[in-house]
Amino acid sequence: QVQLVESGGGLVQPGGSLRLSCAASGFIFSHYTMNWYRQAPGKERELVAGISGVGGSTNYADSVKGRFTISRDNAKNMVYLQMNSLKPEDTAVYYCRGFGYWGQGTQVTVSS
Fold it and tell me: Mean pLDDT throughout 25-53?
C-alpha cells in the first residue's frame, strides 16, 4: 500500500534550520511530482514547495522562496525539505504529498 512517512520536525529558534524527510513507498516514486504542504493552527493547508518526478523542476510559495529548498533522491524514494532562516510564522504541521496521498505530518515549531 502507499505510504508517506515524514520525519525531521521539531523545535528550533528563529533563524535556525531544519531538514524534513519523507519516505515514500507503494508507487513508482520517480514518476510523480512530490509536494510539501503545511498547515498552521486556524489556517488552511498551503502548498510550500513541489518537485517534478525527475527533479528538474521545482516551485515554491513566495513566503519561503530563498529560504527553503526541496530535493529528492529517486534511488531511495525520498523527498526532502531543507528549511533555513526559519521564522515564527513557519510554525505548522508539514505534510508530504504524492500520488494523491498524504503523510501523517511532522510538527515544526519556530520559537525562542
Answer: 96
